[in-house]
Amino acid sequence: MTPLVRICLVAPVPPPYGGISHWTSMILQNAAERSDVRLEVVDIAPRWRAIDDLAGWKRVLGGGFQLLRDMCWVLWRLRHHPHAIHLTTSGQFAIIRDLAIMTIAKRFNVPVIYHIHFGRVPQEAGKQSREWLLLARAMRMAHTVIAIDASTEQAIQHFLPYVRVVNIPNCVNANSFPQSTINTNSRKTVMFLGWVIPTKGVEELVQAWAELQPAGWRLLIVGPGNTEYQQRLVERHHPAQLEFLGEKSHDKAMRLMANADVLALPSYTEAFPNVVLEAMALGKPVIATPVGAIPEMLQFGTCEPCGIEVQIKDVASLRSAIKYILSHPSEAEQFGKNGMMRVLNQYESLVVVQKIVNLWKRVAETQKG
């Protein structure tokens, strides 16, 4: 009989939909189909504030109450004696919660796998910022750290050579996607999918679109956000053929993506955005900034790129990239084909999830030893 590994997964579960919560959903789905893994989840999704409400006092006050709740749930889950805690983090204030959970885990002699889901580690490490100092302390307490991109892994190895770190990327289940379509309608689509907040580069995208005004094309912005913010963007830039569709279920969002022609993601910061993998799996060319793991994913500067690189907060660069993609359909199609091949070869969920399960089992063995 295959030995059973018991894991306490501390991670956000949708709603709201986001990169880490979608990763959680995929892990839960895959684990449910396995007989060698049992997961118990502590849901740390921050539902006490709007996603675009970043006021410091609210994050501290609300986060304090959530910290108490999360710690109580971790204590409750520890009664089942898990072999390990798999703790995901988005950094910043969340690191305080992480340290508290790790302290509890240490008291119960349960090892922690610390999964870093943000991409600014190299920059923060270089600056020796307060966030980095807290993060470094948390990583020293962990049994193993998971980095989701090569630059994060390299930074940890350089600044914390005694920390055990592995690089495991995000993943997608390519077989679960709707069939991608070739848009033969007179009106084609550029799509943004994500949180509709300033740091996702939404205003730059709206401004570039308004300046370009491409005939026969529309821009769809899909994701949760503040309607007042969206209205301000429209009043400021007066874009034509722009639709804000709001938050959609993952299935509906993927159907929209399957019928779109291009994904645009001009974020200021990312880790390993699932939406880029999803667009690649659907054969869509991607316009994105070189942040986090995006350059690795899209292979900017190689002979087989999957999209076009644009600079952060650079409306002119974004406008030029959109214009190029729209006016070079054969190259756009090749970008999409390159992306599909990379997903199948490197980011398919069965391969990536097995790496995570193997790590769980290795950590469980050290606990038994």
How would you explain this protein's 3D organization?
It is a single chain. The protein is an alpha/beta fold and 369 residues long. It contains 14 helices and 12 strands. The chain has helices at 19-32, 56-77, 94-107, 121-127, 130-141, 150-159, 202-212, 227-237, 250-258, 274-281, 294-298, 315-327, 329-347, 349-368; strands at residues 5-11, 37-43, 84-89, 112-116, 144-147, 165-167, 188-193, 217-222, 242-246, 262-265, 286-288, 307-309. Strands 2-1-3-4-5-6 form a 6-stranded parallel beta sheet, sandwiched between helices. Strand 8, helix 8 (227-237) and strand 9 form a beta-alpha-beta unit. Helix 2 runs parallel beside helix 3 (94-107). The longest helix has 22 residues, at 56-77. It is globular, with a radius of gyration of 21 Å. It starts with a strand and ends with a helix.
List the helices and strands in order: EHEHEHEHHEHEEHEHEHEHEHEHHH
Number of helical elements: 14
The average pLDDT value, as a whole number, equals 91
Biggest beta sheet summary: 6 strands, parallel
Oligomer: single chain
Largest sheet: spatial strand order: 2-1-3-4-5-6
The poorly predicted ranges are none
Tell me the distance between the termini: 20 Å
Task: Compute the number of strand runs.
Answer: 12
Tell me the structural class. alpha/beta
The fraction of residues assigned to DSSP E strands is 15-25%
Radius of gyration over all CA atoms, rounded: 21 Å
Estimate the global geometry from the Cα principal axes. globular
Helix content: 40-55%
